[in-house]
Design goal:
Blueprint: H1 2-9, H2 13-49, H3 57-70, H4 74-82, H5 86-111, H6 113-138, H7 146-166, H8 171-188
């Protein structure tokens, strides 16, 4: 975000906050749209990879939703870098690695591939949220994100559960599975 860095250097934190908030809100909508589309298209996509992967469709969907729910939090790392606090991002990344290794070590023996998916997706989700929270707490900008992130997580999680439970959706189910959560998110998060 060069505009963010430029505004910070110019001493205009109010405008920088608006730029950051606008980008974050766009990322919520984009991530939810892409996640829903990928989850509801996962069945034919996995079928293209061959029969070896046909039993893993639910795991792919779970991984997509975990990464999608954490994705917008990465903008927190961008903000920390823009204000010269990138070392905090590095520490959060190191914590993510430690959380992943610990979770993987505990979950793999008992749950196999499901444990690995939960370990990598869960550690990413937690640390991406931590990046956004760190940017909010340690950065000089004021940006509202709690309401938007709340609805993003609720509707993204519901879409993920429906996608995992739906199995192979028909065209209408797939279209509804994508448009309903996105429309509800735009309404509930008060996008104009």
């Amino acid at each position: 975000l060069p505009a963010l860095t430029k505004l910070m250097a110019a001493g205009n934190p109010k405008a920088a906050s608006e730029v950051f908030s606008t980008n974050l809100r766009m990322l919520f909508a984009i991530h939810l749209t892409v996640a829903c589309a990928v989850m509801f298209l996962m069945e034919p996509l996995v079928d293209l990879m061959g029969s070896n992967y046909s039993n893993e469709k639910a795991l792919f969907k779970l991984l997509v939703i975990l990464y999608a729910l954490g994705g917008p939090g990465g903008l927190g790392g961008t903000l920390l870098t823009a204000v010269g606090k990138q070392q905090l991002s590095v520490w959060i990344g190191a914590i993510q690695l430690a959380v992943y290794l610990g979770a993987f070590t505990l979950l793999w023996p008992r749950y196999g591939l499901l444990g690995a998916v939960i370990a990598i997706g869960g550690s990413s989700l937690v640390c991406q949220i931590a990046l956004l929270a760190a940017a909010r707490l340690k950065g000089p900008l004021e940006f509202p994100y709690r309401r938007d992130y709340f609805w993003f997580v609720v509707l993204g999680s519901l879409a993920g559960c429906v996608a995992i439970g739906a199995g192979t959706p028909g065209f209408i189910t797939g279209v509804l599975g994508c448009t309903v959560p996105i429309g509800a998110f735009l309404l509930l998060a008060r996008y104009q």
